[in-house]
Amino acid sequence: MVKKEFSRISITLNRRDFEYDVYTLVIAFYPGIETHVYDPAPAETVPADEKEETPELRVLVDIGDRIRIALTAPEREETEEEAAPPEEARSECKNLLKALLYRALVRLSGRTLPWGNLTGIRPVKLATALLEEGKSDGEAVRAMEELYFTSPAKADLAVRIAQRERRLLSEMHPENGYSLYVGIPFCPSICLYCSFSSSPLSLWADRTDAYLDALLKEAAAMAGAFPGRELQTVYIGGGTPTTLSAEQLRRLLGALRQTFDFSAVREFTVEAGRPDSITEDKLLALREFGVSRISINPQTMNQETLDLIGRKHTVGETEKAFALARGLGFDNINMDLIVGLPGEGLAEVGKTMRRIEALGPDDVTVHALALKRAARLRMHMDEYEEISFKASDEIMACTEEACARLAMTPYYLYRQKNMAGNFENVGYARAGRAGLYNILIMEEVQSILALGASGSTKIVHGDGRIERIENVKDIRNYLERIDEMIGRKACLLEG
């Protein structure tokens, strides 16, 4: 982790509509430091009894006739940037503000960020827009470096992925279809870093059939949600769907096939996810109902790390589950990995990649650890102060080189707040094995009908406008309020 130079950061900002952009860029340079945003006021932001504690970084952002940035830190000269705001749209003002703030933070900290001043989660969208303006690959790379201060390597990565996505999407015409997401919010155990709305199966073992009842009721009610459009991809995620029994999986998959028209489906994914939830009977159930893509997610192939983060399986079980799936004929297997896990550096990630190469998956997703508020690891960081959390150019290069040896190239990318090293999540896949649903959900070019607890239905309109309909996250609330959610969703979809 970045060494803490300050005990806290105070941001004074006179335009709250730019708060997200300022806050996220500051914490990208100084992760893990207590940071607060204040309105301009003559009073000091730090109480007098705290001033002697340890140093504070103060960030002043004033947006008026001119944009003024001032960074003040103890025993350092004030760092300033200033410029007249453009008269164009708000987005142009935001771009200039972030450029000024980024330059000031670079001078203060003495370092740059791989993604420059980009704080959003979809940098590939920006690369796509540049290509659609008619720019060549090289021109788009240079534009990203100049406009957003991205490193040459990251700009090149974004442009390469944008080109591959454009080719894949042009073949499937997503505007003519829709996708289906089905959420199964149960896991064998909850990992230390997890912030998803999932629950240990042990707490709900006697209610999983009730959950399926509600889920399939919602499915039946929503079957005609997008008339005239073909169902193109189906994704069953969670949680860990394979925490369900083989009998329950057959019930779920059979009902979905009876309810929806699968004749045009190009990809049917089920997250088998946790190796300790995979059995031969469950895999046979997936094969029986035409599942074409599965995930077997080790996160790491270092047993010490698995034990620390709460993954209740062994490296050997991962390898055994993978071999079982291959033996049953699954020819599109994804594996998810996380870099930046506690205690893992280049040597540990290298060991993971060697064991992954020996298995030979078709699709690998490399996640840079992102600690969200709900993750137990973030809530109890003081217990892990002696453990390092690393992600570096060398580590990311190690994963990319291993994927290249497996004949995989990058096909989708997204970012999250609080990511280790300010890096990214990248999906790599062999030719013909790219996860189409992953591209659709990231680039927001197709409507997605989401069923189940915490499902987020997304309606993409022809003018690019997006509407979302959220299901409740809590499983008990989902069971009790299923009719309400069906009614709310039907009302908006009909409108």
Folded structure, characterized:
With about 500 residues, the protein is α/β, with parallel strands linked by helices. The chain has helices spanning about 20-30, 90-110, 125-130, 135-150, 150-170, 200-205, 210-220, 245-260, 280-290, 305-310, 315-325, 345-360, 375-380, 395-405, 435-445, 475-480, 480-495; strands at about 10-15, 35-40, 55-65, 65-70, 80-85, 175-185, 185, 200, 230-240, 265-275, 295, 335-340, 365-370, 410-415, 425-430, 445-450, 455-460, 465-470. Helix content is about 40%, strand content about 20%. The chain has a nine-stranded mixed sheet with strand order 14-15-13-12-11-10-9-6-16, sandwiched between helices. The longest helix is centred in the first third of the chain and has 21 residues, at about 150-170.
State mean pLDDT (0 to 100 scale): 89
CATH topology of the largest domain, what is it called?
Answer: pyruvate-formate lyase- activating enzyme
Number of helices: 17
Which word captures the global form? globular
Beginning-to-end CA distance, first to last residue: 49 Å
Beta-strand proportion = 15-25%
What's the CATH C level of the largest domain? Alpha Beta
The largest sheet is: 9 strands, mixed
Find the CATH superfamily of the largest domain: tm_1862 like domain
Spatial ordering of strands, largest sheet: 14-15-13-12-11-10-9-6-16
Q: Uncertain runs with pLDDT below 50, 5 residues or more?
A: 372-389
Structural class from helices and strands? alpha/beta
Helix share, percent: 25-40%
- The count of DSSP E runs of length 2 or more, i.e. the number of strands, is 18
Give the number of domains: 3
**CATH A-level architecture of the largest domain:** Alpha-Beta Horseshoe
Give Rg in angstroms.
Answer: 24 Å
